[in-house]
Amino acid sequence: MPANLTASSHSTNYNFPALIFGILLIIIIICGNVLVCLSVYTEKALKTTTNYFIVSLAVADLLLAVLVLPLFVYAEFQDGVWSLNMTLCDGLMTMDVMLCTASIFNLCAISIDRFIAVSIPLNYNRKHVDQRQIVLLSATWILALAVASPVMFGINNVPNRDHSECKLEDNNYVLYSSVCSFFVPWVDCDWLSMFLSLISRKKKVLKVIPIILFLCAFLFCWTPFFVVHTMRALCEDCYIPSSVTSIVTWLGYVNSALNPVIYTVFNTEFRKFFRKFLPTLPNCC
C-alpha cells in the first residue's frame, strides 16, 4: 500500500538509517522470494498446488521489492521529500497499491485453498492446478489491479497538488482501497484461520500452522498501517506524526521478508533447497 511521503518546507535532511535499512530489506526480500520461486521450479517434491499459490505470493513480494521499495527508500532517504516527477509518483502509487493488495489477496487465496483441502480433501487435487485454483489465482491479481486502477486513471491529479510529496490525494479512495485491500480480506482470513486452528486438533498440526502464521504475520505487519491511514482519511484535522506514518509503512513492507522465512521453517523440502544455496543456515532450520 502507498507510503505517505511527507513534504518538508526546510532543506532536506538525509536519513541514512532509512537508506541502510531499506537496502537491507530489499536484498532480503529479493533473495528470499527468488529462492522460493527457484525451489518450486526445480524441486519435484515442491510442485504441489499449495506451493503454486505460495509462488504467486512470492512474485508479488518480489515485484514489490523491485518496483516499489527503491523509490520509497529514495524518498525516505530525502526525509520524505519527493524530488522526482509526478508521473513517476503516480506509477509508484499504482504499483504500491496493486502489489501490496496482491500480496494480501494471495495470503487469502492460500487460506481458501487450505480450507478447501481440509474440508473436502477427496475433491482436492494436490499435484495439478485445476480450473477452480486457476480462477482463484487469477482473481487475486485481477482484483488487485482493479483496486489500483483509479490511480492509474488519474485520481491523483487533483488541483493545486503539492509536487514535493508523493501520496494518495483522494481520501475517499484511501478508504475504498483500505476496505478492499485489508478490512474485507481480514474478516475472511480471520474466520478461515479460526477454522484451520478447530481442524489442527484433529489433523496433522504442521499442515495448518504455517497458514495460521502467515495470517498472524500479515495482521501484525499490516494492521497498524491501515489503521493509521484510515484515521488520516477520516479525520483530516487529526495530527499524526510523520514518524508514525513511516514506521507503520516500513512494518507493512517487512511482511514481504517474513513470508519466505515461514515457508522455510515449516517445510522440509524448502529447507533442503535453501541449504543448497545457504550452507551456513543453522541446523535448527
Mean pLDDT: 82
- CATH-level-2 architecture: Up-down Bundle
CATH third-tier fold name: Rhopdopsin 7-helix transmembrane proteins
How much strand content do the residues show?
A: under 5%
CATH class: Mainly Alpha
Number of helices: 8
Q: How many domains would you count in the coordinates?
A: 1
Tell me the major beta sheet: none
Residue share in helix: over 70%
Order of helices and strands: HHHHHHHH
- CATH superfamily, please? Rhodopsin 7-helix transmembrane proteins
InterPro entries: GPCR_Rhodpsn, GPCR_Rhodpsn_7TM
Subcellular location: Cell membrane
Keywords: Cell membrane, G-protein coupled receptor, Membrane, Receptor, Transducer, Transmembrane, Transmembrane helix
Membrane topology: Multi-pass membrane protein
Task: Write a structural description.
- The chain is an all-alpha fold and 285 residues long.
- It has a single domain (16-277), classed as Rhopdopsin 7-helix transmembrane proteins (Up-down Bundle).
- The chain has helices spanning 16-42, 49-77, 86-119, 131-152, 171-197, 209-234, 242-266, 268-277.
- Helix 3 runs antiparallel to helix 6.
- It is globular, with a radius of gyration of 20 Å.
